[in-house]
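Suppose a colleague, Dr. K., hands you the sequence of a protein chain of 210 amino acids and asks what its three-dimensional shape might be. Before reaching for any lab equipment, you can write down a predicted structure in token form. Begin with the sequence itself:
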Amino acid sequence: MDKIKAKYKNLDRLFIKSLLVAVLLFALSLALNYFASAYATARAGAPVGDIILDNIPVFDLDWLFAYGPIIFWAIIAIFLLKEPQTIPFTIKSIALFVVVRSIFVTLTHLGVSPADLPPDFASNFIKRLSYGGDLFFSGHAGMPFLMALVFWHNKYLRIFCIFSAVFFGAIVLMVHMHYSIDVLAAFFITYTIHHLAETFFLEDRKIFYV
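The predicted structure, expressed as tokens, is then:
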């Protein structure tokens, strides 16, 4: 506990400024995501065939789809609070991820089958986060993988994040809430996003390891 307190005492004005910028960028990315998701959903077309979805049933795992990420992000938040110097770069990386994904979801307007929508107990929660038309690429798979790349130096956190990315990728396919291309592409696009973040937010990355 004393070590954690010492880390917070050592934070300077530059850190506070960077943190405020990170929060602002994150807020703006969420606003962009809101409008992009609404746009994509309003123009969503008919569902298309998928080599995986066409060959597996719809599994009743919607509670994992809805609430699993909450548990994941709670664990990440605890780690961030223990290592405050990692917060600005992490938040800015997430904001960049959301911005890039928002651009992608506006480009192609595929629809999911109405029969595959979550049941009532989870649908209200999910609708607060997504309109349903923001399919490409999967945030459920991409976000945990982004955290794996951000915290690659931490062996145990890296393994946990990679496992979570694969696990949530499987879940979104099993509940038929994403196409297989949404999940597969998420890993490749996220890898690029991470490297862009390291270029754009170089100073924040430097203090990340302090």
